[in-house]
Amino acid sequence: MTDKITVALLCGGRSSEHSISLITAVGVLGAIDTAKYEVVPVGITKDGRWYLTDAQELEKLTAGSDMAEFTGSAQQVFLPLGAGDSRLHLVDSAGHLEFGPAINVVFPLLHGPFGEDGTVQGLLEMANLPYVGCGVTASAVGMDKHFMKVAFADAGLEVGPYEVVTDRQWRHDRDGALERVARLGYPMFVKPARAGSSFGITKVDTAEQLVPAIEQARVYDPKVVIEAGIVGREIECGILDGHNGDMPRASYPGEIEMQGEQGGFYDFEAKYVSKTTAVTRCPANLPPEDLERMRQLAVKAFLALDGEGISRADFFYTPDARLIVNEVNTMPGFTPISMYKTMWEKTGIEYKDLIDELLMLALERPVGLR
After folding, report:
1. Torsion 365-116-62-313 (CA) sign
2. What's the pTM value of the predicted model, to 2 decimals?
3. Would you name the residues annotated as active-site residues?
4. Which parts are annotated binding residues for Mg(2+)?
5. Total domains in the fold of the chain
6. What is the pLDDT of residues 173-187, one digit of tens each?
7. pLDDT per residue over 260-269, tens digit each?
8. Are residues 290 and 270 located together in one domain of the fold?
9. CATH number of the domain to which 215 belongs
10. Which residues contact 263 (CB under 8 A, 6 or more apart)?
């Protein structure tokens, strides 16, 4: 018997951000308070199968590789789907069933579709298991750059000009879609509507580049969002929910400064692997009143999605001091070099304590309608 809180840590997953999730899991496993928590890592393969894994296997997979893949282990995992039983169900290759540990809380360190978009959150609700992060609706809206912008605008937040091209529009009215998009002017940014970590994003400077950019985005998602280029600095702000219904908290805003090549994307390498490609400035070099205004708007954006637990809000800060919200990420990068973790450290919460805060928030929140 143990007095520790048992945490099922989910990583991997079916999205293009599978490897990022594995890197995140290694970071959390290295920082979590093992005197308080018993962690049960569960890896999800790219085809959606769940297996037991451990820190050593995940460290080995991600060492020296930015495109690691979890392919399974000896014991497949199934969640309990009945009230009153929170034990994992473990099945070996011969089909033998045994019961694993009873789970107190789930930490879904999953990025992108089939993990961050409400699907896993719905499964955990059905299994009556508390979990870290946003619920079903907030996760789904926060994953879709189109509906997220609709929610922001409805809440009175300023969003940049954009257009949406659905799969149906692209197949049946391509000329009309291109005509709408062209009105945004150049440069523009073409993005998969429901992907992250810079996958499938193209900066488009000419009309000739537009169709290839949309086709590239469609590799990741048949629904595409095209955003007008905005002149401004990109500033981010971390959000951490309040306890027992208190208002959410906002970190000091931070800014990524790319090193070396000018104008490059803050891409996979810079976000999750390299410690030298990008430098975080936190607090960002803004007037104090604008820093505070951004923190207030970050909380407003979080509430616009009905967010819970954890999120990161991204803004454009224009030369005339406007703050244009770009997106809220409901499961931001959470590795030891990630922006979210760094901003909270600068605000006064260390990585280990931040993990503890998120798990405590999940445990005090009821499962189901709330």
Report:
1. negative
2. 0.90
3. 17, 197, 338
4. 314, 327, 329
5. 3
6. 999 999 999 999 999
7. 554 454 444 5
8. yes
9. 3.30.1490.20
10. none
